[in-house]
Amino acid sequence: MKQIAQLVPSLILIYVGIGLLFGMYFFVKGAAQLDPLIKDSKWSVRLLLIPGAVGLWPLLLIRLIKKQKG
Predict the structure, then answer these.
(1) Residue 25 is part of which domain span?
(2) How many domains does the chain have?
């Protein structure tokens, strides 16, 4: 049980860390690939997308991959 209690916070930190890296990519390029209208928006609008990208990075990554393939 103690090992699980130590593992859960580590997994959460890894998830958030990957999410932050993905959020930076999403801020610069990814959002424009999913929504062409975001290219014309201000940087402040893109900044608002980062928290959602951090939390939902697996879903957004799948969408980006599907968009590039198809």
Answers:
(1) 2-69
(2) 1
